[in-house]
Amino acid sequence: MALSPDYIIAGPLWESLESLLGKEGVATANGPLHRRQRRTIQPAFKLDAIPAYGPVMAEEAYALVERWGSGKVLDVTAESFRAAVRIAARCLMRGSYMDARADRICADLTALFSGMYQRMMVPLGPLYKLPLPANREFNRALADLHVLVDEIVADRRASGQKPDDLLTALLEAKDDNGDPIGEQEIHDQVIAILTPGSETVGSTIMSLLLVLTEHPELGDKIRDEVKTVVGDRPVAFDDVRKLTYTANVVTETLRLYPAVWILTRRAVTDTELGGYRIPEGPTSSTVRTRSSTTAGRTSGTRSSTPTAGSRNAPGRAQVRDESVQRGQPEVSQRPFLDGRTHAPHRGDRLRPPLRARGRLRPRPRIGITLRPRRLMLRVLPR
Question: Which PANTHER family match (predicted)?
Answer without folding.
Answer: CYTOCHROME P450, CYTOCHROME P450 12A4, MITOCHONDRIAL-RELATED
